[in-house]
Known about the structure:
8 helices, elongated, mainly alpha, about 65% helix, single chain
Amino acid sequence: ANAITKKFGLVNSSAFTQHVSDITDASDQVQPSSSIQKVSIPSEEVIIEELKILHRSFTSLAKDIRCKLEELVKSGKYSFHDIAAYIEEAQVGIGGLTKLNTTDELFEVIRPHIDYLDCELLETIVEEFLHDDDITQEVKAHIDKVKVFKCTTPIKILQNKLQQYA
């Protein structure tokens, strides 16, 4: 696989694969309108730069969430077991989390289920455990950026660009 897909965590990312599949299915159902307007298609460089920005934002966000969860466990507000059990229940397909011992191990296991284009699981964790306005706002801002990116980047073109690097 190309360095770009590796850099952005697209290789072996079930979250990304599902994301592309969902978007492809939805875009195949769109019916052309009689008043089609010419759309400005972003260049490959612009798309890659936007992906880099989203990736950096996501990486920072995931780090902050991991640190806050670790603080909550150390302070005794929540047990690691309670957090792990909640994530097992919230995310179908992830098991064995309660057998882990650290937040780092937890994030290693959930990593294939999250990425910078789909951080719904992180949003769920923040809503349940981190009652921190700053992180909540960061998550919402990231999700808003992703939504804008998805709306402004023709998905078929994005999918083709990403598959070229796979």
